Amino acid sequence: MSRVKRVIVILTVLFVALLVMAFVLENQQDISLSFMGFGTGKMPVSMFVVGALVAGMLVGPLFGFLIRNRRLRSVYDGRS
Q1: How many Å apart are CA 53 and CA 39, to the nearest integer?
Q2: Which residues contact 27 (CB under 8 A, 6 or more apart)?
Q3: pLDDT tens digits, residue range 17-36?
Q4: For the chain, how far is it from start to end, CA to CA, in angstroms?
Q5: Structural element, H or E, at residue 17
Q6: Consecutive H or E run containing 71
Q7: Residue, of 12 and 39, whose pLDDT is higher
Q8: What sign results for the dihedral spanned by CA atoms 52, 54, 59, 61?
Q9: What is the pLDDT of residue 44?
Q10: CA-based Rg of the chain, rounded to a whole angstrom?
Q11: Burial class (CB in 10 A: 0-12, 13-18, 19+), 61
């Protein structure tokens, strides 16, 4: 990777980290969520949103991997 690309990637990561930190600092109101009878304790709004972001970052690629494997397997078996 060239130096310019590396600097751009580092600046982008720092910018995103700064945005996340600003979001967390601005959303410190305590709330509790309830869904289908399950409830949570009071936590800041930012914890729920960042938790949903992390869960999506983990689950999204997992689903993509599973779908890609299923497609490749059907191509190798002669199905389309």
Answers
A1: 20
A2: 44, 45, 46, 49
A3: 898 888 888 888 888 888 88
A4: 38
A5: helix 3-26
A6: helix 45-76
A7: 12
A8: positive
A9: 87
A10: 20
A11: exposed
Distance of CA 62 to the CA centre of its chain: 12
Joined tokens for residue 30: 């305590």
Beta carbons of 5 and 31 less than 8 angstroms apart? no
Mean pLDDT score of the chain: 84
pTM of this structure: 0.54
Amino acid at 19: L
Three-state DSSP class for residue 29: coil
**Domain regions of the chain by residue span:** 3-76
CA-to-CA distance for 69 and 61, rounded, in angstroms? 12
